[in-house]
């Protein structure tokens, strides 16, 4: 059985408001991710909360998920949320899919391809033109190493230390490297989700697409 760990504990400092609660399509950013995952055959879905958990958790009632609270969310370290999620995994879980809560453009076909690439002992990472992205599938054999790491480490560092375990899944969408850190990221994502919105508003003199981040797109937050 495969499970997903959805990281929803961050403080959204660069966005200026809780980005997971922002409107995206017919729901919110976080609910969009959960709806995508619910269509991927996962046996368990765990949402790791932290900042404004009292606002996040009520959204989860519409979905078949479990929530766990990361008491160390304020440190801003992604690894602590990943560890919290892995600790909550069921005994029959063979691998955990690490999903960013702020990637609403992620589609189910990419998730299914990552899951289908599972190998015992491996770390499965989607890539877009050689840029690593999310979600990342961690086989259970890797968890102990992740759980043993102290604060200050990143998932990227852990994965790179076991480079022989990495298996890449090339994909044809940059959604795997697009998360929402800033208002510009959000605006661009909503335009991609609804292309007519941009044309309806008309062009802006400062309008430009968000530049894709370099290898390990969210390296500053510990992307593998």
List low-pLDDT spans: 196-222
Distance between the termini: 23 Å
Count of distinct structural domains:
1
CATH class value: Alpha Beta
Number of helices: 8
Which strand-content bin applies to the residues?
15-25%
| Number of E-state strands | 10
- Please state the average pLDDT score: 87
Shape: globular
The CATH architecture can be given as: Alpha-Beta Complex
| Assigned CATH superfamily | Spore Coat Polysaccharide Biosynthesis Protein SpsA, Chain A
Q: Kindly name the structural category.
A: alpha/beta
The succession of helices and strands, N to C, reads EEEHEHEHEHEEEHHEHH
Q: What is the CATH T-level topology?
A: Spore Coat Polysaccharide Biosynthesis Protein SpsA, Chain A
Please compute the radius of gyration using only Cα atoms: 17 Å
Task: Report on the architecture of this protein.
- This protein is α/β, with parallel strands linked by helices.
- The chain is built from eight helices and ten strands.
- The strands form two sheets. Strands 1, 4, 5, 6, 7, 8, 9 and 10 form an eight-stranded mixed β-sheet that branches. A two-stranded antiparallel ribbon has the order 2-3.
- The model is unreliable at 196-222 (pLDDT under 50).
């Amino acid at each position: 059985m495969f499970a997903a760990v959805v990281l929803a504990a961050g403080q959204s400092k660069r966005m200026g408001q809780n980005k997971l609660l922002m409107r995206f399509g017919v729901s919110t950013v976080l609910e969009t991710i959960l709806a995508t995952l619910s269509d991927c055959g996962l046996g368990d879905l765990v949402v790791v909360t932290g900042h404004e958990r009292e606002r996040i958790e009520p959204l989860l009632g519409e979905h078949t998920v479990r929530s766990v609270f990361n008491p160390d969310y304020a440190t801003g370290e992604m690894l602590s949320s990943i560890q919290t999620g892995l600790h909550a995994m069921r005994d029959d879980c063979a691998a955990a899919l690490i999903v960013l809560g702020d990637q609403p453009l992620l589609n189910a076909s990419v998730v299914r391809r990552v899951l289908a690439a599972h190998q015992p002992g491996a770390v499965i990472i989607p890539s877009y033109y050689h840029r690593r992205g999310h979600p990342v599938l961690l086989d259970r054999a890797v968890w102990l190493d992740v759980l043993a790491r102290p604060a200050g480490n990143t998932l990227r560092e852990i994965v790179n230390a076991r480079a022989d375990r990495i298996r890449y899944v090339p994909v044809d969408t940059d959604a795997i490297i697009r998360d929402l850190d800033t208002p510009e990221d959000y605006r661009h994502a909503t335009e991609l989700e609804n292309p007519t919105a941009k044309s309806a508003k008309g062009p802006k003199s400062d309008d430009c697409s968000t530049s894709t981040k370099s290898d390990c797109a969210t390296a500053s937050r510990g992307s593998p």
